[in-house]
Amino acid sequence: MSEELSATDTSAMLTPRYAEIATFLRAPLAGDWSAVDIGLFGIPYDGGITNRAGARHGPRAIRDASSLMRMIHHVTRFNPYEVCRVADLGDVRFRSVYDHETVMADIAAFAGRAHQAGMRPFAVGGDHSVSLGLLRAAAERHGPLGLVHVDAHTDTWDQFHGSKFMHATPFRRAVEEGLIDPKRSIQIGIRGAQNSPEGWEYSREQGMRVMFIEEAQDLGPAAVAAEARRVVGEGKVYLSFDIDGLDPVYAPGTGTPEAGGLSIHEAQRFLRALDGLDFIGADLVEVAPPFDVGDLTSLSAATLIYEILCIMAGRYAA
């Protein structure tokens, strides 16, 4: 850890888990954004959903479930809070929650402030449409990015019932706007029958590496991570994890569940194997608490958020 950094105040993490204000991973609430290295924040928005709404409630439920997380990783013995300053930035506030383009602008402005403050923003949604606003902010600061995208769906369809801005289109818009480099992008866990192959074909035509679930499970987490490393290379990378990348057994509370997905253990091992990549931002999306069972999806989400935090914090350990 560099001399100018001080570790996160973890005193509140040692109180009973049912105490204190619920924050992501029990991190302190941010005051001075310039004193934060990794900023977690919520995006309570699901105006881009095509069917089962409820992801707007995701950030609040995940904050509560994340009180079960602890500090030291059981495999690596790494404590992210010792090497960098982690804080909860609160939620994006919307000027007009029924206007999707205004919502994207609000998300981009919030994430842009985080980038300008020198931190690595980590957003918790919300539906997957929010990734477009987040990528706009990240690319404005860092240029076109590599992408590691875990999902049941490519989210590269062109439109749905006349709208080009919804949760199945963010990465097509991101390619069109030059926010991501499709040749440095990989989509992992893709599955489920579709009425049109449009999304799969667009991703491949643009040069994105599309890894269907059968290939991912045949290879195993370590080989999948090695392929992700090969695709994204040494440059700056963005990580987007849709909770429906997991099998519904581990994440029933989501808008578009698809059977036959990753296990939580496969996802954890895959994420750990990405350690060392330069993730300048991340999101975890599509947790819909109204469809959850026993808070299982929120717990899975909180667990993956901790894993992602560890690999993001690893950049500060040198």
TrEMBL record:
A Pfam cross-reference name: Arginase
Gene3D superfamilies hit by this protein: Ureohydrolase domain
Domain of life (superkingdom): Bacteria
Ranges in a coiled coil: none
Keyword Metal-binding: yes
Name assigned to this protein: Agmatinase
Taxonomic source organism: Aquibaculum arenosum
Enzyme nomenclature, EC number: 3.5.3.11
SUPFAM superfamilies: Arginase/deacetylase
MF (Gene Ontology): agmatinase activity
Family: Belongs to the arginase family. Agmatinase subfamily.
Xref: PROSITE patterns: ARGINASE_1 (PS01053), ARGINASE_2 (PS51409)
Keywords assigned: Hydrolase, Metal-binding
EC class: hydrolase
